[in-house]
Amino acid sequence: MDVKRGSILFRCDATPEQGYEPFYQCLSLAASMQRRRRGTHFFSYLEPLSLATNIHRGNNDWAAAESVVGGPGDLDATLREVRKLAPSAVIVAAPSVSEEYLEELTATGTRVICIDSHAGLDATATRFLQHAAERLGWSGRRLHRVIKVARTVADLAGCADVASAHVAEALQLQRALQA
Question: Which pTM does this prediction carry?
Fold first, then answer.
């Protein structure tokens, strides 16, 4: 890829405990950045490690983080990566990142963007959505779109968490828009 502008560093993780939504959000955003001639780098803790193929398939660079965002030693490792790459921006996608963490990254002089990706899916809704995504063969981008619509449906219903009913309505809306 012929990069014309400063690169972007994505600091996001994908683990069964934290979920995969922030990771797939970052992959979608990285694809958008590449279309705008920006280089993309991922600094991520991945579990399972096979998720790295998704990063490389998207033509992104990847460096393995030794701990999750906010974990022991993570801030120092992230700062080293920022100094090494000198990106024009760092995008952090983690549900529990602290203000101190973001302030330390900002102190490097790099623009820091924090994505709040907590959709609040309950366990039943998560299983329902995973089953539907597998059955329908959805990409990470498509799955993320459905999650965003389900979050909006839950917000309109005045619910703090996304339930299976909200996911089902989002699925119906997505399929209706395809027709």
Answer: 0.66
